[in-house]
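Exercise 7. Given the encoded structure of a 148-residue chain, write a plausible sequence.
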């Protein structure tokens, strides 16, 4: 929930107090055991990802002549990866749960964004020059979820 800047603390607290029951009913409550299991799974995946993804990214970058600023690992619910204009490549730790060719496709996709920050024909041509089966990999990746 957000509060407009001009709203006083008094008004915000009064609103929360008067709507407490409605807010509690509206918020989804998570089973603590499920949350603990999910946190543990994230921890294990992060450990695996740290020992693999940055090195795989570096391997492909050197192989195809790319240079990036840094590699960041995330656990976003909707994205497998991203590439920022400051040349940071973010990779989702959920990639550790997909088959290796799909993982490689995501890495190559993000590396291609270093030269093309869009999904133009030139971008897809570059991805295709490194991964001949990229269309198949892209379709297969849709059967997996990046969220944990």
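Solution.
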């Amino acid at each position: 929930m957000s509060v407009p800047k001009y709203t006083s603390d008094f008004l915000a607290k009064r609103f929360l107090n008067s709507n407490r029951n409605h807010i509690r009913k509206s918020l989804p409550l998570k089973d603590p055991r499920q949350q603990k299991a999910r946190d543990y799974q994230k921890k294990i995946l992060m450990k695996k990802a740290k020992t693999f993804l940055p090195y795989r990214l570096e391997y492909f970058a050197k192989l195809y002549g790319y240079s990036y600023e840094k590699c960041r690992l995330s656990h976003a619910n909707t994205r497998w990866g991203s590439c920022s204009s400051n040349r940071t490549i973010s990779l989702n730790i959920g990639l550790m749960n997909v088959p290796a060719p799909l993982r490689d496709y995501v890495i190559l996709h993000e590396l291609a964004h270093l030269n093309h920050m869009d999904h133009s024909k030139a971008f897809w041509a570059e991805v295709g020059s490194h991964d001949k089966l990229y269309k198949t990999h892209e379709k297969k990746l849709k059967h997996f979820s990046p969220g944990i």
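Remark. Residues 9-141 form a domain with the Zincin-like fold (CATH 3.30.2010.10). Students should compare their own answers with the one above.
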